[in-house]
Specification:
mainly alpha; MetI-like fold; 2 domains
Length: 274
């Protein structure tokens, strides 16, 4: 392969350095704030460390957010699992069906993804209230599933388009049913798509605030709602809030580090098709 020109290499390196600095600076400020006392925070020396690292802030923050973390983990995992199950089957049908209705539906779902979910917030809350699922874990899970399953269907369906039909035809000639072909041929080949879709859906549910604020109760409070409460009503405890925010951010970060390669392969599969 031809080596890049030195000037282009320098421009690329400088761009990466600037973007990395812009991305990491807020995280650095959060860490410095989390390790300070409230009195040190009022001095507004955001880039400088405090006199001594207040590691107990992380222990205090963890005790405050632990129930909310458990709620968010349960809800996000349940939604992710259900979205992968039903979204993959829906995406497989849409990608393999040759009917005009299926193709039009695939296109309409893709267009609908660009609409803000706030437009259906009021009808969704009304449905949850009439069915008795409002203010429950099941109501939050079902609401998030309604919002994220179309995304899962489109992402999985786009990946399924890159799988040669000849593999499925060969399995059918060997006597495999459509369900067996999907489970034994398509699913093993689609692990990158499953990983990327799972990471996107999990992160969206984990970081969602407005719907959780509308449907959650003290018993079902999610982590994003709890982060807003930690700051306090009368005294701004920014050190505890930043410590809790860092703990919260570790969950999707660890998931991305574990599935990073599969995530990139899943996103690029549709672009590299054909």
């Amino acid at each position: 392969m031809k080596r890049p020109e030195p000037m282009l290499y320098l421009i690329a390196a400088a761009t990466v350095a600037v973007l990395s600095f812009a991305y990491l600076l807020p995280i650095y400020v959060m860490l410095m704030t989390a390790l300070k006392t409230p009195a040190e925070i009022t001095q507004r020396t955001y880039l400088l460390p405090g006199a001594s690292a207040q590691l107990e802030n992380f222990a205090t923050a963890w005790r405050l957010i632990r129930p909310a973390m458990a709620n968010s983990a349960f809800i996000a995992l349940a939604v992710t699992g259900a979205a992968l199950l039903f979204g993959s089957m829906g995406g497989y049908f849409l990608s393999r069906s040759r009917s005009l209705i299926a193709r039009a539906l695939f296109l309409l779902i893709g267009i609908a993804l660009y609409l803000p979910y706030q437009v259906i917030l009021i009808p969704l809350v009304q449905v949850m209230a009439r069915t008795g699922l409002a203010l429950t874990h099941a109501g939050l899970i079902l609401s998030y599933l309604v919002l994220n399953m179309p995304l899962a269907s489109v992402l999985m369906g786009t990946f399924f388009l890159s799988i040669p039909r000849e593999l499925e035809e060969a399995a059918a000639l060997d006597g495999a049913s459509r369900l067996q072909t999907f489970a034994r041929v398509v699913v093993p080949l689609s692990l990158p798509a499953y990983a990327s879709t799972a990471l996107i859906v999990f992160t969206q549910v984990w970081n969602e605030f407005l719907l959780a604020l509308t449907l959650a109760t003290p018993r079902t409070t999610t982590i994003q709602i709890k982060l807003a409460e930690i700051k306090g009503s009368y005294v701004a405890l920014y050190n505890l809030q930043m410590a809790a925010a860092l703990i919260t951010a570790l969950v999707p970060l660890v998931l991305f580090l574990l599935t990073g390669r599969l995530f990139v392969r899943g996103l690029l599969a549709g672009a590299l098709r054909g």
